[in-house]
Structures are given as C-alpha cells and as structure tokens.
Amino acid sequence: MPTHKSYHSYLIESLKDPAEAAAYLDAVLEDGDLKHILLALKNLAEARRDLIGTSEELASDWKNCYQSLVQGETPGLPAIATLLSELGLKLSVTVKERQPV
Questions:
Q1: Average pLDDT of the chain?
Q2: Buried b (16+ CB within 10 A) or exposed e, 66-99
C-alpha cells in the first residue's frame, strides 16, 4: 500500500491555510481560464468543508456555492464571496499592470 498522499489530498490539505489558499486562487485568477477558476473554487470549497466537518451548520450561501461547484455550475458572486470569507479570504481589485504599447 502506498505511503504517500494523492496530489488532490495534498492540495486540499494545503488550501486549509488562508495564505496558501490566497496564493493558489491568485495564480489561477491570473491564468483567467473560467474552467480553472471554477475548479479552484471547488477545491477551496472542499477544503472548507473538510475544515468545518459535518457537525457545524453551514451558511446557506456557502451550501449553494458548494453544490453549484460540485454540479459544474457557476455560482453567483455573493456565494463566492461567502465561500472566500469562510476561508478567511476576501475579494479585492487591483490595477492591472500596463502592457507596453
């Protein structure tokens, strides 16, 4: 029997750390591919689900966001904001670096 974790298990475990989750999501957002962003949000949702376990009551926005991601749908901005907040993250906007003309 292998003694190593799968990459997915390692990723989910690392995403429980807000700094790791922020860096991960930032890198995926930089890529800009919607499929990758949705997968990253799904991974973040899974990490949050693992953090809270089944004993705590979940916010309905969080539940809706998680279910949307699991079903391959795109959750709304309020649900995404709730998910990020639950992970100790927040949405922000920065100025895009100017490209040479």
A1: 80
A2: bebbeeeeebeeebbbbbbebbebeeeeeeeeee
Total Cβ atoms within 10 A of residue 51: 14
In a domain, 50, yes or no: yes
pLDDT tier at 75, thresholds 50, 70, 90: confident
Residues comprising the chain, all counted: 101
Q: Domain range holding 39?
A: 7-86
Q: What is the pLDDT of residues 27-64, one digit of tens each?
A: 999 888 989 998 998 898 888 776 665 545 555 666 77
Q: What is the per-residue DSSP string for 70-100?
A: HTTPPPPHHHHHHHHHHTT------PPPPPP
Residue 20 covered by a domain? yes
